[in-house]
Predict the 3D structure of the following.
Amino acid sequence: MVHWRRFTERARRVIYNAQEEAGRLGENYVGTEHLLLGLLRESDSTAVRMLQQLGVSLSQLRMEVERQISRGEARVGQETQLTPRAKRAIDLAYDEARHLNDNYIGTEHLLLGLIREGEGLAGRVLKQMGVDLDRTRAEVRKLKGEKEVSPAQVTISRTDVLRGLKGRDLLGINDLTSEECIALLQLAAEMKQTTRAGAEVVRWKRPHLLAMIFEKPSLRTRFTFEAAMVQLGGHAIYLSPNEIGLGKRESVADVARNLERWCQAIMARVFAHQTLVELAQNAQVPVINALSDLEHPCQALADFQTLIEHKGEAKGKHLVFVGDGNNVAHSLMLLAAKLGTHFTIACPEGYEPNERILSLAREIAAATGALITVMRDPKEAVRTADAIYTDVWASMGQEHEAEQRKQVFMPYQVNAELLKAAKPGAIVMHCLPAHRGEEITDEVIDGAQSVVFDQAENRLHAQKAVLAALIGDW
Ligand code: CP
Ligand code: NVA
């Protein structure tokens, strides 16, 4: 969800410039690099004055972006969409404006958003040129006539990080920065403690509503989202595929335009990830991915909450996924990269993770020190594992491939023999539902190293943290 209403005239011009830059470079998407080039074209804007103030050579900066940028073959005039990173930079611009008590979004906020996003081309080049977030924030404050504050004073607290998530979508793990993932996991852990003690850290003043769209069956996701809303003081409304006929009885866009009038957030479990993208593009309320063919971000958050509970921390630990490079593997890999957890997937040839997600995870991991590895031999993979994770061999929607997949995946079964090859004390994880006797044996899933029901329990708390942050109002 991107709101343009609060943009200043000049900040809007930056967006138009960015679209032109993307067109000039033959791309049909607008990335952070195009936003930065668009910003630099506004030579007398606050952002450009800031950069000059920080001693940045504008021509060098532009040259460096041009050097690193990719060039595509899109036709001029083709529709351009913001990339998830560019969207995140804009979301972060909103957050920066809030911290500065500004009720508009100007070029200075866009610059801060690009720096803070950090993982896109713009963020990387700005960092390379020595543009640092704390100094730029201090410079912006100075320019606004406020007393200069030291970088330590402008450090954002965990609550502020969580507040920055208000109104945002969670379609995939990369919609969150590393610091946001950490803040959500900490909040989830606190929520678990307080819920067990019979209290709630977050309790809304008004009964917010969540729409829950399901194209596929669910036990954990449905129950825990609904329970999370009740415990936060809200209510969830379940919409089955037969009821709403998403994309058949009514277009995805129209469903979004209706729901946004009644509720404060939409969660959806869909077959095609693109359906979530369309819901998010057409709804002014946050959209949450409750599993698509590409990702299962809420599951990954609950899983890392569990891993931290059992292993003390995520950074430096080794999570080994044995099986299909599917939606669950994708979100785990991205979250591992964000948190500095080493991630290995052992999978048969032809069942590797999506290449785009793999390279994104490696790009993110470069900043956190995580190692992301794809290998064939499960025994070799689990040798240094702190956690061994598996999931079904045929996901929902792939049932017709189940028999053929059983042949291919049998050597990847998580059984007592594989566990013997693993590091002693490794925990065993599964998102559930499990196909006992296929990807995992009874002996292992019911064994002492299994934490699968802790994972299921944590779905409630991780989602409660997500809902509290995205809906806000506390
Ligand atoms: N793990 C998980 O998402 O379970 P459900 O399919 O039951 O929601
Ligand atoms: N990969 C599985 C996960 C279920 C929670 C599926 O998509 O069916």
Summary: The chain is about 50% helix and 10% strand. The pocket of norvaline (ligand 2) is lined by residues 291, 326-328, 391-392, 395-396, 431 (CB under 6 Å).
